[in-house]
Amino acid sequence: MIYDLIGTMYTPTGVMLTDSEGLEYPEMTAVDGYHVNALDVPAELDAFVVIPTTAQRMFAGREDTVCLKFTDRAEWLTLGFEELEEAL
Q1: What count of other Cβ atoms lies within 10 Å of the Cβ of residue 85?
Q2: How far apart are CA 42 and CA 64, in angstroms?
Q3: Is 20 left (phi over 0), alpha (psi -120 to 50) or beta?
Q4: In this structure, are residues 39 and 57 in contact, taking their beta carbons and an 8 Å threshold?
Q5: Is 0.90 topped by the overall pTM?
Q6: Cβ distance 17 to 24 under 8 Å?
Q7: 28 phi and psi, to 5 degrees?
């Protein structure tokens, strides 16, 4: 499985803010969950598949990108797909 760790995703609230230089930018709020995109997803991850109305990220625009949502990073790590680098 090829995966892309996204982590926390953000969405605009509809409120515009102004920075110290007078430039406007959208206020953003965190979307619940820990997000991962993947290709060639094994069946054991079917329970974590979500189908967003508009995907914010995909693999180079590939339509076979699968969006996964976990409660948090710890839940993702318990599944054993990501190998953490050990401290030297």
Answers
A1: 5
A2: 13
A3: alpha
A4: no
A5: no
A6: yes
A7: -120, 150
Site of tokens 């710890």? 74
* Token pair for 85: 């680098």
Work out the pLDDT band at 84, boundaries 50, 70, 90: low
Q: Collapsing DSSP states into helix, strand and coil, what is residue 45?
A: helix
Residue 79, CA distances (Å) to 7, 47, 70 in order: 15, 12, 11
- Cα 75 from Cα 86, distance rounded (Å): 19
Which pLDDT score is estimated for 87?
Answer: 47
The tokens describing 74, both together, are 């710890």
Give CA–CA dist 77/21, Å, rounded: 41
Query: Tokens at residue 83, please?
Result: 């190998």
Question: By the 8 A CB rule, do 63 and 39 touch?
Answer: no
| Contact (CB, 8 A) for 65 and 59 | yes
Identify which of 53, 48, 57 has the alpha carbon closest to the alpha carbon of residue 78: 48
